[in-house]
Write a structure and sequence with these properties.
With 62 residues, the chain is of the alpha+beta class. Helices cover 15% and strands 24% of the residues. The longest helix is centred in the C-terminal third of the chain and has 9 residues.
């Protein structure tokens, strides 16, 4: 099941469920899966792992 997370200043942060297609983390040096979908502005989004989620959220808040 997909879970929506609340992050101030970010329109959408979703924790992806087991039925979502696997994605790579937005950090090119990371081998972990992108378990989170973060809408960074009106048209751009990234997938992030647990380790890089806050980096993606900070970019979206900027």
């Amino acid at each position: 099941m997909t879970e929506r997370l609340s992050r101030p200043g970010v329109d959408l942060v979703l924790k992806l469920g087991e039925h979502n297609a696997p994605r790579g983390c937005q950090n090119s040096d990371c081998d972990l899966g992108g378990d989170y979908y973060v809408l960074t502005d009106d048209v751009l989004s990234v997938f992030a792992c647990d380790t890089h989620l806050e980096d993606a959220v900070e970019r979206a808040q900027a």
